[in-house]
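Appendix B. Extra example for self-study. Work through it before the problem class; the solution is given directly after the inputs so you can check yourself.
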Amino acid sequence: MSMNVVEASGLGKRYGGTWALRECTLAIPDGHVAALVGPNGAGKTTLLNLAVGLATPSAGRVTVLGGRAPGSPVALDGIAFVAQDAPLYKNLSVADMLHVTRNLNHRFDQGYAEDRLAELGIPPNRKAGRLSGGQQAQLALTLALARRPRLLVLDEPVAMLDPVARHDFMAIVLTAALDDGVSVLLSSHVLAELERVADYLILLSRGRVQMVGEVDDLLASHRVLTGPAGEADRYAERPVVHVRRAEAQAHLLVRATANDPVPPGWESHPVGLEELALAYLREPGAAALPGPTLPGPARGRHAEPSEVAK
Amino acid sequence: MVIDKGDDDRAGASPASGGVYSDQHLRVSDAEREAVSGRLAEHFAAGRLDQAEFADRVGRAMSAKTRGDLRGLLADLSETGSPAVPELARGGGGTPGATPGGGSRGPGSPIEFRLDAASGVPTYLQLVHQVEHALRLGYLTLGDQLPKVRDVVASLAINPNTVLKAYKELETKGLTAGRPGQGTFIQATLSQVGLPELAGLRKALLGWLTAAEGAGLDEDGMVALFTSALRDFHERRSGSRTRGGAASGETEGVA
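Solution. Structure tokens for the complete assembly:
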């Protein structure tokens, strides 16, 4: 049970002269829905591709499913990956997609797939390319889950979906996590919805891991302090991650718990996941990482800072 | 007062309509009002009334003057058929919450969760609070079933661990107990305050609100005043518990 579904140490990937991912060290424990978040170009897809064996590391190493090499038979068998644009053969019918997937895989639960598609009202004789965006995403997800994986990897699964389709899609992912104990690793830049979906967070910024941990722990170890701007600089009792300041009032995001003392004249508030992630993304030098692998402030200019996630 | 326990349709309304025919204009006692509230709670638990309708009818029951008023509140509800919410009639055979393992929308749990993403309250705590709230207001009572974890996950698209954490917290608080293979059930009530007392308190509060409005307070002002009074009340109580010392007011609350 204490297996890590993905483990990386010093992992890096270089494309030409640019490091897409650098000094990435993390361990994602089994039995979680882990969210990989960060701005565009932060290295999310690169990390996922390395984990599923579609890319090979330029530095460091990565293992999956408790120490297996990505791309090894055990890893291929135990991991289902749905790439960014719900890849399907658009000219094949739904039934043919099932047929192909069944024959290309060691294990395929035809009954599960047919039941799911019937529940979703997806007609088996319709060509995959003629399905709606939501249905295509559901079909790709169904094909992945019918392989009965131990780890489901989804690259930006809901980016193109409307709110209802997004909700239905995530409901199925989360139900599979509950029913079959599937671990999930998904990348996203829709921060707002992650708080209810993910219980583990990996924040990537400019090719580096900036924050990683159980969502509850991350939220419990940060507070927002609001008080007079003039005193903001004097507050050094706890590490300050991010400061937002106006003439009179300042908000400090600090590493502190609800039980830590608050200076007189200041108010302490809990922080939401979105606010927390945004604060870290705005402070590339700050990091919240477990263990001794705390890297120094980002010194590189190896990747362009792109716009912050919505 | 109670005539017979036969299970014809009229049995459902008997506590309130003890007397027979043209008693429409007879004045009712508090006991009768409470009996009707109790009946309404049972109908609510069996899924024949939704929350808003239930709250409305209890309010009307507590302010009813005549038997006619009371009877109207139960007229469209009966044990066997349920004209108010027909689609639930088949599932609930009269005994609330007694059939585990039903469909996802069956007579399983009297409550359903919702999430407020903007509240800033952690998701699992929102679920805990909603169960406590439902217990305080009588929407949930002893033996009622909580929604199944899988149903909550599927309907809200939330992380299963979040639901499990909330249910564990409720169990730790002694409010619920899991029954293997069946689900999670209410084991204790939060307050001993019954529906009638609650309705009475609510009435007193409405009176206070009217007075506050008369004095020129707007809604925010009322909330602020209430919150501040509640804090004073809390401090005085905890202050007198630790020692008889003077409640040192603000500073203690801020620290």
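Self-check: The radius of gyration of chain A is 21 Å. If your reasoning did not lead you there, revisit section 3.
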